[in-house]
Specification:
This protein has no helices and nine strands. The chain has 70 residues and is mostly beta strands.
């Protein structure tokens, strides 16, 4: 029984303990952040991260040629 556990994770993309490469992506309209990097690093290239409720990107990220709200 029991309902779903409440875990705070990024609504768009959640990255943990990795080196994520995100390219040519649109991450928008999420109810939390667009991208959450819990540990590790994300490399965001040629992407749009906009209109997410909490934040565009939360955590360590390298951003190139992208439009990030915030």
């Amino acid at each position: 029984g029991g309902g779903p556990a409440s875990v705070s994770r990024g609504s768009g993309i959640y990255s943990a303990a990795s080196s994520a490469i995100i390219g040519n992506a649109t991450i928008a309209g999420n109810s939390d952040e667009g991208l959450r990097v819990a540990s590790g690093n994300a490399d965001v290239r040629n992407s749009i991260v906009y209109f997410n409720l909490v934040a565009g990107i939360q955590g360590a990220a390298t951003v190139n040629y992208s439009d990030i709200q915030g």
